[in-house]
Predict the 3D structure of the following.
Amino acid sequence: MSSKITPATLRAMKTRGDKIAALTAYDFPMAKLLDECGVPLLLVGDSLGMVVLGHPDTTHVTLADMEHHVRAAARAKPVALLGGDLPFESYLTVECAVANARKLVAAGAEFVKAEGGREILPQVQAIVAAGIPFCGHLGMLPQHVLEEGGYKIKGKTEAEHARLLADAQALADAGAFAIVLELVTPPVARELSQRLAIPTIGIGSGPDCDGQILVTPDLLGTFPWFTPKFVQPHLNAAAQMRTAVQEWRTTLAKTPTS
Ligand code: KIV
């Protein structure tokens, strides 16, 4: 049995140049399966709002939703480091951020993630001071999709580039153990990965991050109604499920009643 993954394990992987594989898991079987595959970093992402709960974006996810799904994933007792997202508007103040991070930890999260840079620095510092490992999230911030009017690539302008560098360094200085970079231009993601001592985990940000995270239904094809452009699915599970269900129905229809 492998030893438990911690933030220090991920830092050591960066130092060795070992790529960090990360995937989302929203329930017990997926967390257990991914852990059995040796994925070292699992996230109960608030993407669950879209790919599990059927909302149009992540702003509908509540802390109760997150606690429920973190509890389910944590029952897998993964070797992987398991984290949970602080959902939309759950970390507006320092007090809320710490109280809600503690609730996710009580549900089984071993770290929490929140979206933003210097604008949430007091919350990040307070979460770290409370002894809760914190993962940052910069670039395209899905919880801001309504204000932004879409999922836009970040780092294209000099102002965005400078902002990303300053935000990433501020999060690292505040004690974040890793930072997710979502839809950041590949050259800027590479520069951030080279400058920071902590691992960067990219999603749609090119190949040069220290690790990559995907929304697992995108990788496995269990949410066939939308797949982001940057994802190459490795399975079309929805097609296989449809075939299996049709075959079962056909067999059932042919089975005589005894
Ligand atoms: O919510 C989520 O699943 C995420 C990952 C895509 C990084 O934040």
Notes: The CA atoms of residues 129 and 175 lie 9 Å apart. Residues 237-254 form the longest helix (18 residues).
